[in-house]
Design brief:
Helix content: 25-40%
Radius of gyration: 18 Å
Distance between the termini: 35 Å
Strand content: 25-35%
Number of strands: 6
Strand order of the largest sheet: 1-2-3
């Protein structure tokens, strides 16, 4: 399976603007710019870090659901937030960490079992694997 997204950028780095679209059509010509990415101007735009976080949260939630189900404890609800940190590093910017926060409603699991299974999900999530060069932390709790 290959999934595609397309970006078109016009202009220089500081004042140019871009738009991104996904093959599925969920995002179509979604605008972004340096200003909206790093300074925020209150407009409804996205940025690569937000999209990366959304992809990671979605992938991780699905992986957790499969891991818990395979262990005999299908979740009732999973809520994942992915906080992607982009910081100035040297002469440029770098994604320096991703913090996953998971709140789960699952019956019949101890906190230790839950922690073991969610750590396995983090290690096996395809997006986590793609980001393996970046430290990815995980906070998880049963609700």
């Amino acid at each position: 399976m290959i999934r595609k997204s397309t970006t078109e950028w016009k202009g220089d780095g500081p004042t140019g603007t871009g738009s991104l679209s996904t093959e599925s059509g969920v995002l179509t010509a979604q605008p972004y710019s340096f200003k909206t990415r790093f300074q925020g101007d209150g407009t409804m735009t996205t940025n690569p870090e937000e999209l990366l976080g959304a992809a990671h949260a979605a992938c991780f939630a699905m992986t957790v659901a499969f891991v818990l189900t395979d262990a005999g404890h299908a979740p009732k609800q999973l809520k994942v937030t992915a906080a992607v940190d982009i910081s100035k590093v040297g002469g440029g910017f770098a994604i320096t960490s991703v913090a996953l926060d998971l709140e789960a409603r699952v019956e019949g699991l101890s906190a230790d079992q839950f922690r073991t299974l969610t750590e396995a999900a983090k290690a096996n999530c395809p997006v986590s694997k793609a980001l393996s060069a970046t430290p990815i932390s995980l906070t998880s709790r049963l609700a």
